[in-house]
Prior knowledge:
Order of helices and strands: HEHHEHEHEHHEHEHHHEEEHHH
Structural class: alpha/beta
Number of domains: 1
Strand order of the largest sheet: 6-5-4-3-2-1-7-8-9
CATH architecture: Alpha-Beta Barrel
Shape: globular
Oligomer: single chain
Helix content: 25-40%
Amino acid sequence: MxxxxxxxxxxxxxxxxxxxxxxxxxxxVMMLEPLFACNxxxxxxxxxxxxxxxxxxxxxxxxxxxxxxxxxxPLVSIAGGEPFAHPQIAEIxxxxxxxxxxxxxxxxxxxxxxxxxxxxxxxxxxxxIHLDGLEKTHDNAVCRDGVFQTAVSAIRKAKELGFNVxxxxxxxxxxxxxxxxxxxxxxxxxxxxxxMISPGYAYEKAPxxxxxxxxxxxxxxxxxxxxxxxTKGWDFNHSPFYLDFxxxxxxxxxxxxxxxxxxxxxxxxPCYLMDDAGYAKSYQELLDSTDWANYGQKSGNxxxxxxxxxxxxEPSAVNEAFSSFGKFVELVKDIASVSKWRGRQGEPIIxxxxxxxxxxxxxxxxx
Length: 367
């Protein structure tokens, strides 16, 4: 919805091609983790608990490019870890762009301003900035003060330089709906090109297990928080069908192969969130050797029961939209009905500030 038009057209063409070919299992977004190392230790993260020798591993640019071509998905989400901690990240991005891929560059933004000169603005590149709420909530989530202010400053800088910028937000237990409604207003006033939002997944390795929502609690929270999002003009980079799913208005099972993960170990089985089945050497091996019946909410797998994350269910929502002509028309009408953000039309709005009260402390992390 909020993506550049060229990206939307590319994804549409890709999806139509998959349907015309009769392909039942195809990737929508390739998740790429060229490293696990990070400059934060968030309480809900399942990546930072690896031993030091694993945290030192890096995928080479060629491995990243080969994985993207092998997978074939039009979109590549570069995550980690913190991508800017990879010494060859600019080369990786440049090579993916040259191969026609559209990139979500997921970053906590601590290193963004000092490294942004290494990248060029492009319709194929979107910075996806991690913001888990307003200042106090976000800094608590990432377990460090000052990160919110650093991220907001980086967003402003990136927009000034002509980059596409979105936010990505993970919702944890006990978060206040009114605060996040203010957060969405504030993000739109900041001028972001879209927002992504998802409930957190209960990683077994995450140090703070109490953070994660149960399935019914997820539905209640999103129903209260997103109740009028279409009229508010909040620009979410999601299918409206997926947002309906979060609110409990639609029911899907997971599409675990829709956002496959390639990381320093290989192709993670079965999905981006779980490595229960080990790793495959190729994307095709991932598809062929995984017993998909063991995963997803309907499978009864206890690790899937409460999961409603975008990486498993956004592909399911997209599949429904392309399941028939009627469903596709329903999606188009839904998107057309969403109000535009009033602030972009010069109408009076209640200002919601993302204040920068003092310079954020620079962390001594190597780029």
